[in-house]
């Protein structure tokens, strides 16, 4: 049924980069065979899932939305991929994304933009926009994403679904094509909070293949989603998020939802996190710096594309031609920015300074979580914007992640849950719930209360 749905709506939505019915059916038959042999087929046996094309997959190509990886077939499964299979999930295909997960609209994909199922002239968010659109368009009940600065929570908000960024290190980066290694976090998308929690538990947890993986039990997010009770919980509204520049319809739904939580017995207070206003510039130094280093591996020798290798050119010339042809404009912008920020003479002024700001943000969270159990804000300042509107204005594009970035810099947990439609355009609005490191269950608890 899902393959039929994909065939019917993909011409309009373009959520997938790769779907191969036979590979999917083979997986489904393997789950059946495990069942028939009396083996445990996994907690989510037979449930279809769309998988972001930034995780390596043995049986499907992996492009990260880039021309430089066109046709690349990885020799191994990412840990997240392997755990999806072990849970019995059936992978429908690989979803579209901004190239190397750099963007907030999926317009930076080398394979064309994905469209928002709510309004095909608008973006589905990004970078995990293929994954959010696939779930919102009923092409899949579940999908995977990665969140480096908001790439799960922001697309979830603008497509009216649930998206969770786990605590950094709570989900494995092994086999996830790296953007900014100190920020990248795999997480789930679903149409309701419980489904997201089930997927979260299925692929999270310690992994010896990822040196930053946390060796601690996965927070009981399924149990928290079941409870969904906020009586007595202390909720802090982030003072710095929600003033000028926010769409009135987003603010209206946000304030109503806060009132709802209060009526359910939560204690709501305003909390100031002054350093959050400097998170965006700090992120746009740290993330490109790490990207410039991570993307050095695309050297025309090891993977995918190779341009100009006709026997007359040096390795360096082939590398330059390949990178010039294989990377899109946003990726090049970040490599240049990151290389500059890390260069001798500028390192302390830019990268070093941004790292200090990062510490201040983590301290703001620490202080806030001494006062309250969770923090809330709108997930995004606006609803889904029209395709093309911000494509030529990187600064406007970067603002989409204003509210989500502090959580990435501090490494704690955040979820986006739908909280209604904006009056002016009828498009979905998301509530962001942020919790301390390894407090992922609190995000699900509040989100489940909002959903009820
Ligand atoms: N939009 C942000 C960026 O472009 C975040 C992307 C992400 O979380 N992968 O970097």
From TrEMBL:
Molecular function GO terms recorded: asparaginyl-tRNA synthase (glutamine-hydrolyzing) activity; glutaminyl-tRNA synthase (glutamine-hydrolyzing) activity
Repeat among keywords: no
Active-site residues from the entry: 52 (charge relay system), 127 (charge relay system), 151 (acyl-ester intermediate)
Region (Disordered): 103-126
Catalytic activity: L-glutamyl-tRNA(Gln) + L-glutamine + ATP + H2O = L-glutaminyl-tRNA(Gln) + L-glutamate + ADP + phosphate + H(+)
Keyword ATP-binding appears in the UniProt entry: yes
Residue ranges occupied by any Amidase domain in the UniProt entry: 1-443
Annotated keywords: ATP-binding, Ligase, Nucleotide-binding, Protein biosynthesis
SUPFAM superfamilies to which the protein is assigned, alphabetical: Amidase signature (AS) enzymes
First-level EC class: ligase
Pfam families the record matches: Amidase
Gene3D superfamilies, per database record: Amidase signature (AS) domain (3.90.1300.10)
PROSITE patterns with a match to the protein in the record: AMIDASES
Domain of life of the organism encoding this protein: Bacteria
Enzyme Commission number: 6.3.5.7
PANTHER family from the UniProt entry: GLUTAMYL-TRNA(GLN) AMIDOTRANSFERASE SUBUNIT A (PTHR11895:SF151), TRANSAMIDASE (PTHR11895)
Function: Allows the formation of correctly charged Gln-tRNA(Gln) through the transamidation of misacylated Glu-tRNA(Gln) in organisms which lack glutaminyl-tRNA synthetase. The reaction takes place in the presence of glutamine and ATP through an activated gamma-phospho-Glu-tRNA(Gln).
Family: Belongs to the amidase family. GatA subfamily.
Complex formation: Heterotrimer of A, B and C subunits.
Protein name: Glutamyl-tRNA(Gln) amidotransferase subunit A
Taxonomic source organism: Streptosporangium brasiliense
